[in-house]
UniProtKB/TrEMBL annotation:
GO terms for biological process: protein catabolic process; proteolysis. Pfam families: Lon_C, PDZ_2. Residues 128-198 form the PDZ domain. It comes from Secundilactobacillus mixtipabuli. Gene3D superfamilies: 2.30.42.10, 3.30.230.10. Keywords: Membrane, Transmembrane, Transmembrane helix. One of its GO terms (molecular function) is ATP binding. The chain crosses the membrane at residues 12-30. Residues 234-297 form the Lon proteolytic domain. NCBIfam families: SepM_fam_S16 (NF041438). This is Endopeptidase La. Coiled coil: none annotated. It comes from the Bacteria. The lineage of its organism: Bacteria, Bacillati, Bacillota, Bacilli, Lactobacillales.
Length: 349
């Protein structure tokens, strides 16, 4: 009996240890993130414009990467999985909490949608107006005297009672003040208007400032109204593809010609396309979704960039290199502007 009891205890102990190891392996969060190919989603389901349905064959697809916090098991798998990278938490979230990171990604996406609307509606010769809401707070520095009041996601609407039409106006006004001067800031927090006062600090640039990372918060109004629901996708990289989808619906032109077209890239107010991260993974996602064309941002590197980074690889170069391996029949097209992408579609079908 004693032998059997000891054997049972030993078996129980081994089972318990194995269960703990399995739990740790699959569920213990590590300070790392795993980035892998995500999805390529049909933008027809994202964009709604009254009396301007998308009735043409083919589709424009927005590509994304999948980002997940690493666990010991997934970390080991990522070490050997193709087109999968392990990123530090600092490089992904910037040291911010998960909630703050998600909030920033949602704002980046909304900004991308706004710019896409403006570029596409203007190109379609429809009415578009911009309403400048103020400075969107992306981060608050540790030495800022406003750190206990301003939070990521707040929008500064006035300083000392003055509203400006761009971030430069706010910065120019504040730069004229001295370190230690009191600044009265009016801001929106969770839909409520608040006011706070604190002294200004000396920034790392040597200028006087609040001590925040900022960007413009702009509301776009179009006629006809363009409604875009990005779902769970965040970040700014869908700008180009959103603008093509919106333009195609507004004009009614069959610019796809039945083709499945994926791509990526930010869109700027002047229609220029900006580079993004993870483009190799987005090419893989596009291939899985059946894309035959992939628009890749192309920004010619300057001499200064090449000197600092001799092995610099552009988005287009990496996308083409990846497609050659995983999707040799996919055409990777370099684009620097929205107009270039439209011209390509109109001349290649």
């Amino acid at each position: 009996m004693k032998k059997q009891t000891r054997k049972r205890i030993l078996q129980y102990g081994i089972s318990t240890v194995l269960a703990i190891l399995i739990l740790i392996g699959f569920f213990w969060p590590m300070p790392k993130y795993i980035e892998s190919p995500g999805s390529a989603d049909n933008l027809k389901t994202f964009v709604k414009i009254k009396n301007h349905p998308d009735q043409h064959s083919g589709k424009f697809m927005i590509t994304s990467v999948k980002l997940a916090q690493a666990r010991p098991v997934t970390y080991l798998i990522a070490k050997v999985a193709p087109y999968t990278s392990i990123e530090s938490a600092q490089s992904v979230t910037g040291g911010q909490s998960n909630d703050t990171y998600v909030k920033m990604q949602n704002f980046y996406m909304q900004s991308a949608i706004n710019e896409a609307k403006a570029v596409a509606v203007k190109a379609a010769h429809k009415k578009v107006t911009k309403d400048y809401l103020g400075i969107y707070v992306m981060d608050v520095q540790k030495n800022s005297r406003f750190k206990h009041q301003l939070k990521v996601g707040d929008t500064i609407t006035k300083v000392d009672g003055h509203h400006f039409e761009n971030a430069f106006g706010f910065q120019k006004y504040i730069a004229k003040k001295a370190v230690g001067d009191q600044l009265r800031v009016q801001y929106q927090h969770d839909g409520k208007l608040k006011t706070t006062t604190a002294p200004l600090i000396k920034l790392s640039s040597g200028k006087t400032g609040i001590g925040i990372v900022l960007t413009d918060n702009v509301k776009i109004k179009t006629d006809p109204a363009v409604k875009v629901n990005p779902g769970q996708i965040g970040g700014p990289s869908g700008g180009l593809m959103f603008s093509l989808q919106i333009y195609g619906q507004l004009t009614g032109q069959n610019i796809r010609h039945g083709q499945n077209i994926a791509g990526t890239g930010t869109i700027n107010p002047d229609g220029s396309v900006g580079e993004i991260g993870g483009i190799d993974k987005k090419v893989v996602a596009a291939k899985k979704a059946g894309a035959t064309i992939f628009f890749a941002p192309y920004l010619k590197p300057t001499k200064a960039v090449l000197q600092l980074e001799p092995g610099h690889v552009t988005n287009y170069q990496l996308a083409k290199r990846t497609a050659k391996k995983v999707a040799p029949h996919m055409k990777v097209v370099p684009v620097s502007t929205f107009n270039q992408a439209v011209h390509y579609l109109n001349t290649h079908h």
